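step: validate -> pass
step: tokenize input -> pass
step: predict -> running
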Amino acid sequence: MASKTTTSNPPNMQATMPTSASLQKTSSAPSPEELSLSELIEILKFYYTQSVHEFNLLGQRLNWFVIVQSFLITSFVIALGYKMQGLNWLAQFVLPILGVVTSVLVMWGIYGACGTIDLWTKKRRKLLRKNKLVLENFVTERDNSEELAEDRVHTTSHYFAKYLPWITLLMWIAISILTFAIPIKFV
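step: predict -> pass
step: emit ->
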């Protein structure tokens, strides 16, 4: 006897996902009369969960990046300690190139996540502004700024994530140059 399986969203996901009817209404600039409070809250929850998801992705990318960089730096220090005549290919070329490449590659993911976070924040704030009377209990002081650049807390929250790859990129370039400029002599 074959059993019939059905797929459905987990119960906790159903509460956070907006209905297709509420999404269709929001795409045509709703007024407070068109959407009920529960539909607006449902849409706000969806925007919030998307932002949280992107922040989690950003954190995972940063964790991955820091782990990779720590292994590369450790390998560089160990390779630099080998007593070699002439060029030390691993310490002078291979590891700095890997450090530069990983720094550049992670920038795309980090800037993409930051841009997506900004997108969901703009959508949430737009919904809050358009339905300010109905959602007044959900509006914070930071939600009143028109542009995200005006919200200093939001913009500075991305600084570490955005600048860490640049710092490590410059570090690897400096390390690569210094390994040629400063000869290491073993006694």
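step: describe -> Residues 36-181 form one domain.
step: cleanup -> pass
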